[in-house]
Amino acid sequence: MLEVRLTHTLGALRLDVAFEAPKGVTVLFGRSGSGKTTIVNAVAGLLRPASGRIAIGERVLCDTAQRLHLPPHRRRLGYIFQEGRLFPHLSVRQNLRYGQWFAPRGARSEDMARVVEMLGIGDLLSRRPGALSGGEKQRVAIGRALLSTPRAILADEPLASLDEARKAEILPYLERLRDEVDIPILYVSHSASEVARLATTVVALDQGRVVAQGRAEAVLGNPAITPLGAREAGAVLAARVVRHHADGLTELEAGGMALWLPRVDRPEGADLRVRIAAHDVIVARGRPDGLSALNVLPGVVQAVREGAGPGAIVAVDTQAGRVLARITRRAATALSLAPGAEVHVVVKAVSVAQADVGAAG
Predict the structure, then answer these.
(1) CA distance 28 to 21
(2) Cβ atoms within 10 Å of 194's Cβ, excluding its own
(3) In what order do the strands lie in the sheet with 342-347?
(4) How far apart, in whole angstroms, are the C-alpha atoms of residue 24 and residue 5?
């Protein structure tokens, strides 16, 4: 368990946070300038906070009350930056071995063959970084961090510099990292899709403060928590692949309900997370007929959160899980939407992007 308690002032940012990051991926989620990178740099030892305490299990990395501040090289943390930052004169194999060189004597080290297989970089070992794509460089950087036998991994928006194709390439490897590595991973992101796919825990930040923390499904399904604004709101459903159909659709089962998506490249029986963006959801008081949309889920309104503008976020609890809908306040009034109202939510199958579907973990 990584424990973080910090206060610090950096320019206009006044940081005051406290949270815990258990095994798995804890995502620091919020707008640019909310303090995400400042927190990661404080954990890494690259920034000395004004006050606070940082510890991994029994190992205290920083405690200002005791005037304790371990330097970065003594913290045993793997740091993955936005760019791979590989040594250009070394091969991939040599870059990986450089990570092993930092592993302390006597520590249980990761097996290089296992790391290479997990990250799918076996055919890259003889190449130099200049011959790698952005996604390949990031996979090698992750491997180098793992082979240093860290107590935790810090990842500061590791996909930010990649295009959508390279992000799609590397996300499955990050899911494997989440599921197969037995240490905390503190991951910075302002991408709702990344958070929905990767996070086991979410720490939502706004202007240097923690506004929510907990399991990804609970935080992302809370209509009052929109760190990136209402436009990026969306909830996460747990689903399982039932079968792939000849017309290009995949049938999922979520809480006993059928959910249809464009073909998902996962085997039958696979457990998934599916992010449903709030702006792709329509709310109806009765079951609608004659629609092209395949996904119509009955549910009950849990909350209605009105924004400062003309919009509102409606949280609907369905058998498949909680769904958020972004509608106008006028529509909410016209439909008499309030907690307890029985409704149906409508989701177009083609509105769910492949980037919003990932392994359950």
Answers:
(1) 10
(2) 25
(3) 281-284, 342-347, 295-306, 311-318, 321-328
(4) 19
Q: Which amino acid, residue 120?
A: G
Q: Give me the pLDDT at residue 161, please.
A: 82
Backbone angles phi, psi at 218, to 5 degrees: -70, -45
User: By the 8 A CB rule, do 4 and 19 touch?
Assistant: yes
Our CA dihedral for 92, 93, 99, 104, rounded to 10 degrees, sits at 180
What is the architecture, at CATH level 2, of domain 2-220? 3-Layer(aba) Sandwich (3.40)
What is the residue type of 286? G
Q: How far apart are CA 6 and CA 32, in angstroms?
A: 19
Helix (H/G/I), strand (E/B), else coil: 202: strand
Q: What are the C-alpha distances in Å from 194 to residues 189, 205, 268, 351?
A: 7, 16, 23, 17
Instruction: Please give the backbone phi and psi of residue 249, each rounded to the nearest 5 degrees, phi first.
Output: -100, 150
Pick the CATH number of 234-359 from 3.40.50.10610, 3.60.40.10, 2.40.50.100, 3.30.470.30: 2.40.50.100
Contacting residues for 161 by C-beta, under 8 A, at least 6 apart? 82, 83, 134
Residue 30: per-residue pLDDT = 87
Average pLDDT, consecutive stretches of 10 residues, N- to C-terminus, the chain (361 residues): 95 94 93 91 95 95 96 92 86 90 67 88 93 90 89 91 85 89 91 89 93 89 78 90 96 96 94 94 92 93 89 95 95 96 94 89 74
For CATH 2.40.50.100, the residue range(s) in the chain are 234-359
| The pLDDT of residue 228 | 66
Instruction: Give dist(CA 190, CA 330) in Å, integer.
Output: 30
